[in-house]
Specification:
One of its GO terms (biological process) is glycerol catabolic process. With about 240 residues, the chain is of the alpha/beta class. It has nine helices and eight strands. The strands form two sheets. A four-stranded parallel sheet has the order 2-1-3-4, with helices on both faces.
Length: about 240
């Protein structure tokens, strides 16, 4: 089972809203809300957070994300109260962006530390210009350790036909579709580009229905990875 998530918020509605979003992006990830104070007031509750932590734990660990300072204290106390505090971690990340990035990482089967790292790198996503992406690829190609460094670059263009373009759910489906491929895939839309495995980065491109996007891939599985992306686009990102 994937790493679980707990959303600790001063607002019950906010916590449940984030969990609802994650359910669409990462359906296999167990995410639990811990928001508000009984009976419906604003604040955070240690007992509710501990209960959510227990519900979210399927054996792979749990990452907790929070909205405001005192929610962090509640989350940390819940972790410290566990029989094995190393089984959970509080991520220092923006709540929504961090939760989306963490969910995508967990959906891909990543370990607890990797999911935490994904959340903490999620501040606004990483979107760069094609020139920056090219420079980064050239820097990578100058190394000798990566198995993708001697692989040719494969490129392709396609037009987005689905109604919402590369919005939240299609971006998550795209990231999941590349799981298992030994390839680095970059998507370019207009003057910006992003790592295809970064849900936030892909969403940040703002690619809409009818837009033409470019795909570039390097690595042993480059052709197969681009073929999978094309199949997904042809199915209107129905997964």
């Amino acid at each position: 089972m994937p790493v679980g998530l707990v959303i600790v918020s001063h607002s019950d509605a906010l916590a449940r809203g984030v969990v609802e979003l994650l359910g669409q992006l990462a359906p296999d990830v167990r995410a639990e809300p811990a928001g508000g104070m009984a009976p419906g007031g604003l604040g955070t509750d240690f007992e509710a957070t501990s209960a959510a932590l227990a519900e979210a734990d399927s054996g792979a660990g749990v990452v907790l994300l929070y909205d405001l300072g005192s929610a962090r204290m509640t989350a940390e106390l819940a972790v410290e109260s566990l029989a094995d505090p190393d089984a959970a971690a509080v991520a220092e990340a923006p709540l929504v962006e961090g939760a989306v990035a963490a969910a995508a990482s967990a959906q891909g089967g990543e370990a607890l530390k990797t999911v935490v790292d994904a959340a903490e790198r999620a501040a606004g996503g990483i979107v760069e210009s094609p020139e920056q992406a090219t420079t980064a690829a050239e820097d990578t190609d100058s190394g000798t350790e990566s198995p993708t460094t001697t692989s040719p670059r494969v490129e392709q263009e396609l037009v987005l036909r689905n109604e919402v373009g590369l919005h939240a759910r299609p971006a998550a489906l795209l990231a999941r579709a590349l799981t298992g491929f030994d390839a680095e895939v970059t998507i370019t839309a207009g003057e910006n580009s992003a790592d295809a495995r970064s849900v936030l980065g892909v969403m940040g491109l703002g690619a809409r229905q009818g837009d033409r996007i470019g795909l570039q891939a390097t690595g042993p599985d480059a052709e197969s990875a681009l073929r999978r992306v094309t199949e997904l686009a042809d199915s209107d990102f129905e997964g």
